Amino acid sequence: MVEDSLTTADCLQITREVGFDSLLTTGKPYTTSCPLPFQADSVKTARDVTRSTLRNWGLSELSDDAALVVSELVTNAVRYAMYSTAPQGIQLLLMRVAPHVLLAVADPSDEVPTPKEPDFVSENGRGLYIVETYSQCWGWDPLARGGKAVWALFRADS
């Protein structure tokens, strides 16, 4: 995890203030939202949107880490939520909450994201370990409409 004075309580306070349910349905300044289908190429789309948004915000230095984290979050959403019977798909949300950037991926699955002990030989199972390693903190919030938003917070120094 990236060293910072941000505590878990701070992370939770930021996500509660943001309110994912309202953000996913209404645009706010310094917010980018992108619907994604349950397809493997959604991961590339999410990376591209993340990189271009951060570049537009003057935060290119976060692009590599944020794109890696968003790849893992969208991959998990595609993998675990694609069989959901809910009508909504996946949604990527990026928000500048100075001095932080919040990335969130909402999906219709109510399954709680559970980190696994990383197996560095296996082809999968390292996603949340990567999210934890490259972000300041991460977590998930249930959505009122069903499903969840899994989020990661980054510090933006500019």
What's the SSE blueprint?
Elements: H1 8-18, H2 20-23, E1 31-36, H3 42-56, H4 63-81, E2 90-97, E3 100-107, H5 127-134, E4 137-142, E5 148-155
Antiparallel strand pairs: 1-2, 2-3, 3-5, 4-5
Organism: Nonomuraea montanisoli
InterPro entries: Anti-sigma-factor_SerPK, HATPase_C_sf, HATPase_dom
Protein name: ATP-binding protein
- Strand order, main sheet: write it out: 1-2-3-5-4
Shape: globular
On the 0 to 100 scale, the average pLDDT is 81
Q: Which range does the strand content fall in?
A: 15-25%
Number of domains: 1
Number of helices: 5
Element string (H = helix, E = strand): HHEHHEEHEE
Distance between the termini: 20 Å
Q: Count every beta strand, where a strand is a DSSP E run of 2 or more residues.
A: 5
Structural class: alpha+beta
Outline the biggest β-sheet. Answer: 5 strands, antiparallel
Given this structure, which CATH class is correct?
Alpha Beta
Looking at CATH, the homologous superfamily is: Histidine kinase-like ATPase, C-terminal domain
CATH fold descriptor = Heat Shock Protein 90
CATH architecture: 2-Layer Sandwich
- Helical coverage, percent range: 25-40%
Stretches with pLDDT under 50, minimum 5 residues:
none
Radius of gyration: 14 Å
